[in-house]
Amino acid sequence: MSTNRKQRVWHTAGTILLCLGLAACQIAGPGVPATDDTSARIQANDRTSSFTFTGVGDNLLHDTLFVYHEQDNGNRDYSGMYSEVTPYFQNSDIAYINFETPCAGDAFGLSGYPSFNGPLEMIDTLAGMGLNWFSTSSNHSMDAGADGLLAEMAYINEKYPGIFYTGTYPDAGSQTMPAVMDVNGIKVGLASFTYGLNGYTLPEDKPWLVNVFVKNEETGEVDYALMDKILDPLTAASDVQIVSMHWGVEYQNQPSDMQKQVAAYLHKKGVEAVIGSHPHVIQPAELLESEDQQTLVYYSLGNFISGQDQNCTMVGGMAQFTIDYDFDTKRATIVDPSFTPTVTWISPDLRRYNTQLFRDYTDEEAATQYVTVVQGQDCSRAYVRDYVTQVMGKPENIQIVLD
To answer: In degrees rounded to 5, what are phi and psi of residue 82?
Structure first.
């Protein structure tokens, strides 16, 4: 929460041990495409306003997703993979995705695991879905090299200047230039950080290229000075702050001590929401509250789509919430936060992919899942329900939407 409402807008631009489950309560409302009722709120009181947020996890582009699609369809339009969830983004003020793997295009060699690089046309697909915030800082940000990352950012800047990308920068001056989205009169500050770079290092002449918030991966020492360097000017330039954190331990359903410590730090800094990624599986969510601050933390939204091969990595999450802001008190209130499970379906021959909400996923689809047919793992509706419930539990004030 900021005490300064000055606007500065910058278009910055594996296997899990616990693949188990229970069932969470479903409460009507969340998990449906958001509707914009902010105009009514503003008319009722011109000193308050609101915005809606929808966010999803890792867009993890194994090469089978884009290579087979082009072979079978003769194009690079990937929108069909996401068509069942696209309306949720199009009806939200802020629509977020963890970009996860770079899309620098053919010039840098398309590739999958372990060093990823997807086609530029994937950016076109995501933009066409209505997504307007990409978190581009991840452990894979440097997989296509510094030039590849710069090419990706240049493509977004040229073709989609209205899309915000955060955590990576085209030049040194951009790193401390706050990314602020003006939404219904509320200045929403956006930032992203990653714990590391998949074994790569930043070029000596470009230390500003990616926000890496861990000084030493072996010790887990956090670079709070860097985080302050990014967040302090962001707070000064915005009313509300949302931060994307690429953190945690892969395939672990519980947040690490470091995740908890950094979440507490972000709460103390006045951040309203934290969107976590990297583990490739879901982790719990919680609402941190103190006398004058709320911070909604989604520790990990898991995979949004991927070519991974375990039942737990097929399950992701969609975060949705509304933030009400009072311009007189400078207080932000989080309204109706929810977590809605998503499921990725992969054909047994690895040639077709789609992602959908759990409530739309059928046992007929589960029976034809790659992880069911080839891996011999349970990916039924019952499995997903039980798994989500065990991991997410029944968090106070956060709705888990299963039906």
So the answer is: -115, 5
